[in-house]
Structures are given as structure tokens and as C-alpha cells.
Amino acid sequence: MANKDLKKMLHLCALTAIKYYPEFRNYFDRKKAEGKNGMAVLNAIRNKLILRVVAVVNNNKPYVENLQKRLDKY
Q1: 4-59, pLDDT tens digit by residue?
Q2: Crossing angle (nearest 10°) for helices 4-20 and 38-59
Q3: d(Cα 24, Cα 70) in Å, to the nearest integer?
Q4: Degrees, nearest 5: CA angle 14-12-32
Q5: Burial category of 65 from C-beta neighbours within 10 Å (exposed 0-12, middle 13-18, buried 19 and up)
């Protein structure tokens, strides 16, 4: 029932995000260390990406990465 091409693109986007964005790499590593299944974590990253895209479209503003602000909290 799902759009398979869209799912493939989201999968590739999630893999790329893990590879190139420290925020997603840290999230992936943390969840794997907690014992989560890799595909479950990858699905969570896909969801995070979709939520960010929807927020950008709804707010009609460019995406701003606030990783450093969030890392300073911890």
C-alpha cells in the first residue's frame, strides 16, 4: 500500500543522514547501545526527517540546523 519509491528515497536519506550529520549518528549510536534493533532506529530517523520536512514546508522557512545549541544542553 505504500509508495515503494518514496520509501526507498527515505531509506537512502536516513542512511546519508547517519553518515554525514553528527546529530543523527549520535542518535543512532545511542539507540543501538540501548539495545534497539538497527532497522527500528533507522525508521525513527526516517520519521525525524519527515517531521523536519513537514515543519519547513508548513512554516515556509528554510531549515536551520541547531545541533550545537542542543549539544550544549547536555
Answers
A1: 999 999 999 999 999 999 999 999 999 999 999 999 999 999 999 999 999 999 99
A2: 100
A3: 12
A4: 40
A5: exposed
Instruction: Supply 45's cell numbers.
Output: 530517523
Checking if the pLDDT of 1 tops 90, the result is: no
| Residues near 23 by beta carbon (within 8 Å), at least 6 away in sequence | 65, 67, 70
What distance in Å separates the CA atoms of residue 33 and residue 29, rounded to the nearest whole number? 6
Using only C-alpha atoms, the chain has a radius of gyration, in whole angstroms, of 13
Cα 39 off chain centre by: 13
Question: 45 and 18 in contact (C-beta within 8 Å)?
Answer: yes
